[in-house]
Amino acid sequence: MTFDCSFLEGLPLAADRISVADERRESHATDYGTERLDDEGVLPNAVVWPASTADVSAVLAAATDHGVPVTPYAAGTGLEGNAVPAHGGISLDLTRMDAVVDYRPADRQIDVGPGIIGSDVDEYVAGDGLVFPPLPSSGDISTIGGMIATDASGMGTVRYGEVADWVLGLEAVLADGTVIETGSRAIKTSSGYNLTDLIVGSEGTLAVVTEARLELAGRPDQVRGGRAIFETLDDAVEAVFDAVRTDVGVAKIELVDGLSATMATEYLGSELPDAPMVFLEFHANHGVETEIDLCRTIFEDHNVARFEMSDDDAEMAALWQARREMAYAVSAYDPDLEPLHPGDVTVPISSYPEIVRETKRLADEYDLLVPCFGHAGDGNLHYSVLVDPDDPEQRTRGEDLYREIVSLAIELGGTATGEHGIGEGKQRYLEPEHGAGAVEAMRAVKRALDPTDTLNPGKIFPETADGERLTEAER
Ligand SMILES: Cc1cc2nc3c(=O)[nH]c(=O)nc-3n(C[C@H](O)[C@H](O)[C@H](O)COP(=O)(O)OP(=O)(O)OC[C@H]3O[C@@H](n4cnc5c(N)ncnc54)[C@H](O)[C@@H]3O)c2cc1C
């Protein structure tokens, strides 16, 4: 749909902060999750790079007045089409609001603009022995604003929690341009509705985050990592469940199945064995060896073939690079195959062995390649259904398989999306997961904060069957 965005010229924004050039609009029409297969997205009519909260407020107030949708955009690494402008309008690119606004090491807190890259926060505070612990695997290419909007999480989540756990407060702008502050500098509060947690994970549909107050953690004195190699995938996932149930002090516990290991070896040229593996990292200020010994004992109960720990920085870096680049390795594996959608389901840890087993069984039944890896300690499974994009029958088969896995995760008491959000890709699962009443309550929140459906329309909630923007009555 085409929206007239000429009103932007009347706003107090520098000319180089607005573009209607095709190249700029095209680069804001897709994200990592949608740029593959044949999904070309809808072009926004204009791209705006605000420099301040006042800029964001002016754009939102004017866009709401003119009935023009606004979709916040950051690094575009989202995997569910979260930042693609489903109905055109304005792509509001927050990446230039990337300053450190205030840093209070004594309180272990930092206030940042939303466009700062996650690992830049870590670099900024490293000199004081501090770290922002919930960074996703994409922490060096994605922004704090994007992580907050998707409630991202990562390899350290098994020990440190998700992004929501580290956000003390926000400055955010509502659809009508109103600037609000949420939370405080205190590490706890029971004052009023928790608007911080409401905005975290709302995928830019309720407010635009213009500043985030983050909590930091101390870096551990002892860090040891390594890998455990198993003969069977079943043993590997049962070992993970047992280690988490026993409360072993792991900071990272990641599954890599044999197929993913083969793909990583081909992609990186690394020498990963062609076998199911669990990558591990232990953090402690003292007694790290005790935790490692406990983990080894548990893994031995599950027939671990090799349990290899190291404190060599280079070795550990190579190991984690292989894990971080797994998504690229999967995409690059076979030029004739593409991942259908990035799969991200999460189940209670006791059901983790079952979801992994069933995924592999379904892969055999549907006769498709499905590499599995992920943040196993959280019960999180990343799976990619690989299909030939030019073969409609194979695509349909892949879609059926994909859906079976998500539905099973929900049946097991889990979630359709552990960390990537609903975006466009997971809308059909919102109601099966939450029930009609809860979804209507979510819609009521959206109506209350954004009655004109200005912010990121077409996300989270299923739309009309023909993909049209919802009418006021339908909202
Ligand atoms: C290789 C790879 C590995 C990944 N690994 C992980 C992982 O381990 N864990 C994980 O959770 N995710 C992972 N992701 C997904 C992705 O990196 C995260 O979802 C990330 O948080 C998105 O950040 P972004 O800056 O790219 O945001 P974008 O993709 O640009 O936007 C994401 C969402 O945030 C909204 N948004 C952006 N900025 C704002 C703002 N200031 N205010 C309001 N809304 C805003 C957008 O509208 C959109 O809905 C991975 C992606 C890739 C490509």
Automatic annotation (TrEMBL):
Residues 40-219 form the FAD-binding PCMH-type domain. Pfam families: FAD-oxidase_C, FAD_binding_4. Its EC number is 1.1.2.4. Signal peptide: none annotated. Its cofactor is FAD. Keywords: FAD, Flavoprotein, Oxidoreductase, Transit peptide. The keyword Chaperone does not apply. Residues 466-475 have a biased composition (Basic and acidic residues). One of its GO terms (biological process) is lactate catabolic process. Residues 452-475 are annotated as: Disordered. It is an enzyme of class 1 (oxidoreductase). One of its GO terms (molecular function) is D-lactate dehydrogenase (cytochrome) activity. It comes from the Archaea. The keyword Flavoprotein applies. Belongs to the FAD-binding oxidoreductase/transferase type 4 family. This is D-lactate dehydrogenase (cytochrome). It comes from Natrinema pallidum DSM 3751. The lineage of its organism: Archaea, Methanobacteriati, Methanobacteriota, Stenosarchaea group, Halobacteria.
